Amino acid sequence: MDAGIGDALAYAAFAALGAAGAAIVLDALFRPVVRKPGARSRSPFRASADIQQRPLPMSDQPQSIDHDVLEAARADVPTGEGATVAKGAINQYPLLANPHIKLAGPVDHAMYASFCDQLSAAPRDGAIVIAISTLGGDPEVARLMGDEVRLLHEAEGRELLFLGKVAVYSAGATFMSAFPVDKRFLTRGTRLMLHERIMNKTVEVNGPLKTCVAVLKATLHEIEHSIAIEEEGFRRIVAGSSVDFDELVRRAPENWYIEADEAKEKGLVLDVV
Hints:
Blueprint: H1 3-30, H2 47-53, H3 67-75, H4 81-92, E1 101-104, H5 109-121, E2 128-134, H6 139-156, E3 160-169, H7 171-176, E4 184-186, E5 191-194, H8 209-238, H9 245-251, E6 256-259, H10 260-265, E7 271-272
Parallel strand pairs: 1-2, 2-3, 3-4, 3-5, 4-7
Antiparallel strand pairs: 5-6
C-alpha cells in the first residue's frame, strides 16, 4: 500500500475515534512490555495469531456431549446404573404412568362405587391399569372388585393390570390376588402386608340349651369358612411365585410385610416401577 494513502487512512481513523479514543489505541500499541530476563520480545500485533496457533488448555478443549448424562441432569435423576433403576422400568411400561382407575383409602363400599364408576369411564379397548393404595378394609369388598376384574377379562378378553402404590395391606393384597403375577406391578418403596383375617365378635350364650348349641355352631362355621376363604386368597396370591403356600400360612399370623423389590424377587409381582 502507498505510504501516503496509509497515512491518510490512519488520520481518518484517528479523527473518527476522537482524541480520547486515539490516546487509548496509541497507549495500547506503544506501552513498554516488561519481560523476564532472557524472554523473547514479541510484538502486540502477533497476539491474535499466537492465540489461534496455541492449543487450548485441556479444560477448554471442546468436549463431546454425553446425551444420556445431559438428559439425566435435566430430569434430576442419577446417571449410569442408577438412571436405569430410576427410569428404566417405567419406560418399559409407559401405560402405568397414568392409571385409568385410581383407588385410595379403606377398602369399603365407597371404594367399590368409585371403582365401578371409573371402570365404566375407562376406554373400551386396550389394557386397563388399576392403581390402589390402601391400609386395608373389608376383604369381601376386595373380593367383589376382584370378581369384576375376572368377569371383564373372561367376557371381553381385556388385559387388566394391577399397580400397587405406597401401601397394599390386608384387603388390598386380597384385591391383588385377583390378578396373575405377570399382571402385577408395584411402585418403588411400596409394601405389601399379608396377614390372617381378624374377627372381633362377642358370643352370648343365653336361652334354651339347644339354641345355645346352634349359636355356638354358627360362630364356629363362620370361623371355619372364613379360614377357607382366606386360604383360597393365599393360594391365589402365591400362585406362579416362588413363595410356598405353607410359608405364607406360617408367616401371616405375624403380619408379613414385603418390600417391593423383595416381592419382585419372590415372583409375587412382575416388576417395580
